[in-house]
């Protein structure tokens, strides 16, 4: 009974928090809907009152210095958006978000409304969008979000100190959005992969923001995730989301970090590795670099699928005068019969290839790790460590391939913040 009352109270609190947030938005657009002359009159009236209060000068004929009027308007604009950001922070907080994700929600909401406000004014008589106002609005939003972040962090530390830190965190699999994730350390993940490389047949997946967005619509991809033997968080946004909901993940375990660590262990434990993926010649170059770096590493073979490699199209051919590209890849793997199969074709293609042809191929553990072969070959450089730790590796990658990655990073992957809100109750 107490739990039901608590849930109802919490739900009511969440709904009430939206009221001042909505009120400020309405106020913003009410002022923005005023025609130019009326807007100036309103601005001048407020400036006169402020000028009178601050100087005691009645400002003859209701006039105030132009510069004073300008800065009064700017400050009021900033105050308006600081209030909006404050109530956004309240809404986000009562819905359970803290830390970096709360900061991002506050910023995105404020920046979006500020942009909509300036765009709206283009259609109001004798008004126009002002980049200066937009900038000032965003600055005030960021300042308020920073206050929430700093003060919230201080309060969280104080709360954790009061609760005590004696409890050790249990590693294991737990819900994350619409799939399960393994909350383990990097070293534990490598140990488990090397155990898999000894017997049986297994595969891992390394979800990032792009994967999670794709999982919402691709049921086949989701089923592959459900059957995976190991699911590790590949991306700082996943850690931010978990931490912001008070249920942090141990650490980031990306495919680009897994491959070299596994190769290092494989060299020591005499496990063979097969590299499948990359453009022509890239896998061979990666193999040479890895063998040079990890003495004793056994590269059982490499295979680079040609451009247009697509298993579905191959299967639909009624006449197959030649061996299909997929069959060639499967045959190459079987000829080498490696302990560890590294597949780098991009998601979800690499995961679907492994799942569909798993029973046809001879290997113990498959690692679909995206661009890891390109990194090992030196085709692309990884971001500096500080950028990776700050969650900015995606930004570094964007500048390497802006044409290919713009839509993915700046449009598609932004949906991760909507999904975090959708699944917030699942992840607490």
Percentage of residues in strands: 5-15%
Oligomer designation: single chain
Termini gap: 21 Å
Strand order of the largest sheet: 4-3-8-7-5-6
Largest sheet: 6 strands, parallel
Number of strands: 8
Please provide the ordered H/E string of secondary-structure elements: HHHHHEEHEHHEHHEHEHHEHEHHHHHH
Overall shape? elongated
**What level of helicity do the residues show?**
55-70%
Rounded mean pLDDT score: 89
Give the low-confidence spans: 311-321
Using the CA coordinates, give the radius of gyration.
28 Å
- Category from helices, strands and their pairing: alpha/beta
Count of folded domains? 2
Number of helices: 20
List keywords for this structure.
single chain, 428 residues, two-stranded antiparallel ribbon, 20 helices, elongated
